[in-house]
Amino acid sequence: MSQPPSRLRARLHQLYYGTTSDCRRFRYAVLAFDLSTMLFVICTSFVDRATWIGVVDVMIGIVLAGEFVARLAGSRRPLREAFTVATAADLLAIASFLAPLAGEGFGFLRIVRTLRLLHSYRMLGMLREDFAFFRRNEEAVLAATHLCVFVFIMTAVVYETQHDGNPHIQHYADALYFTVTALTTTGFGDITLSGTTGRLLSVVIMIAGVTLFLRLAQAMFRPAKVRFPCPNCGLQRHEPDAVHCKACGTLLNIPDEGRD
To answer: Which GO terms describe its biological process (predicted)?
Structure first.
């Protein structure tokens, strides 16, 4: 027979899964911290590596490790949660921040810092409840988020693999510029990736630009489905040109722009 959870574990579970205002503020604080770490990674790419940056890296890693342990402790199924893709991403992100303790040989792990943004996707349910704008534009917001995360990950890969040996890639702005021009297949040619690895990476980015980038951009500006509650059954999502609800057949009157 399982033992009842301790008061600490019960409190942690409440913070991560509860619906009170304190719990919501806590989860928004976690989200804000995640976004702040991304901003720190970008900003520090513009300055020379210094001791204080390594110290901040380690401090962030310690905070992330503490949050990770607290989240597992607050879970009703910690063993099950420990073997998920999200948990693996968290562990890699934590290791990347603590890498300065082991030396620059583990610098490549900093690429996976961007995966911390995936952890923020758990906030979607709460955002639906708290923000009317998000409810009305969920598809567009999600498409924009996916696009930004993908661009950020590709930028991080370009920066981490090129900034040491490529004089054209000095900081994240250079890597972002190359990534966007490659994703959109613009290719001005003023920045190129060196070596066989760089060429292969360019091919991967361009293929992704033709497939994923354009698909996400299309979804962002023209969502595949519109939100319009059916007056009879309450179905929320319909095709843009739907006349009847596909669930119950009720006649719909979805506002549109009057275009084909």
So the answer is: action potential
Rounded Cα distance, 208 and 63, in Å: 34
Using a 10 angstrom Cβ sphere, with 0-12 exposed, 13-18 middle and 19 or more buried, the burial of residue 235 is middle
**188-235 residue pLDDT tens:** 888 888 888 888 888 888 887 777 777 777 776 766 677 788 888 988
Distances (CA, A) of 189 to 105, 110, 199, 205: 31, 27, 13, 15
Q: What is the pTM of this model?
A: 0.69
Q: Which residue type occupies 149?
A: V
In the chain, where the domains are located: 1-131
Contact partners, residue 78, CB within 8 Å, separation at least 6? 72
- Cα of first residue to Cα of last residue in the chain, in angstroms, is 63
Helices (H) and strands (E) in the chain, counts: 12, 2
Handedness of CA 42, 45, 46, 48 (dihedral sign): positive
The 10s digit of each residue's pLDDT in 237-257 is 888 778 889 889 888 887 765
Q: Is pLDDT of 113 > 70?
A: no
**pLDDT at residue 106 above 60?**
no
Quick one: 207 exposed, middle or buried, by C-beta within 10 A (0-12, 13-18, 19+)? Answer: middle
* Cα torsion through 232, 238, 244, 245, rounded to 10: -40
Q: Give the whole-number percent of the chain exceeding pLDDT 90.
A: 3
